[in-house]
Design a protein that fits this description.
Helices cover 73% and strands 4% of the residues. It is built from 9 helices and 4 strands, in the order H-H-H-H-H-E-E-E-H-H-E-H-H. A hairpin with a 2-residue loop joins strand 2 and strand 3.
Length: 230
């Protein structure tokens, strides 16, 4: 009886745990999305992408351990920086290359879907947190640590984009001129995420968000599977 009660109590505590439900919905949405796109209808499931991005962003914030003033500033500045980078790319071709967005990602302003700004923050922030944890043994107060963290963040973010790009094009999130993804795109991703990471470091935001590395890993696995099977 005691053992049964302890098991029930453990299950009850687990079901009350916010992180448990965060991982549950993360896996449920991405696994079902991957299966639906590969075996059913990729266009129908691709059309649900805005809802997925919003939900993952909300869950990411819900697992943030320290939503300080500096974190909010980082969120705003990171989102604005991501939007401005896309604005320069879409309208002037200064960054990334010649490309245009489709209609799947929702409302656009100056040709840039507003959701992209949040997505930029989410990807770079998750990479930033993961990088901070990878380098946790280093001296976190040194200038070299900030540089190494920015470098690691840029590598993770650019690698993520490398996985995502062909799938996003196939799903008609955006399209490239002549259908080719330019190497310049990845250079720009590296540069923008590197600078955003330095901005996060200068604001000394927390790197304690247990959901962030899961979100980055699951989304990376999601795009990798779609690259292979679509």
């Amino acid at each position: 009886m005691i053992k049964k009660q302890s098991v029930y109590q453990h299950i009850f505590q687990l079901l009350k745990n916010r992180f448990f439900w965060s991982i549950f919905f993360l896996l449920l949405i991405h696994v079902s999305g991957a299966i639906g796109m590969v075996f059913y209808d990729k266009e129908i499931f691709a059309s649900m992408t805005p809802y997925n991005l919003i939900l993952m962003f909300v869950i990411l914030l819900g697992n943030e351990k320290n939503i300080s003033t500096n974190f909010i500033i980082s969120l705003i500045l990171g989102s604005v920086a991501g939007f401005f980078a896309e604005f320069l790319g879409i309208n002037y071709g200064i960054l990334f290359g010649e490309y245009t967005y489709g209609n799947i990602l929702g409302i656009k302003w100056f040709g840039v879907p507003l959701l992209i700004s949040l997505n930029w923050f989410s990807i770079v922030y998750c990479s930033f947190v993961a990088s901070g944890q990878l380098l946790k043994s280093a001296n976190k107060k040194s200038t070299s640590f900030f540089f190494l963290q920015a470098l690691c963040t840029a590598v993770l973010t650019t690698s993520f984009d490398w996985l995502m790009e062909p799938v996003a094009v196939q799903l008609k999130f955006w399209s490239w001129e002549n259908g080719d993804i330019p190497f310049f795109n990845y250079l720009c991703w590296f540069a923008v995420s590197f600078l955003m990471s330095l901005g996060f470091s200068s604001l000394k935001i927390s790197v304690v968000n247990p959901f962030s590395k899961w979100l980055l890993a699951v989304q990376a696995a999601f795009f990798l599977l779609l690259r292979i099977f679509l």
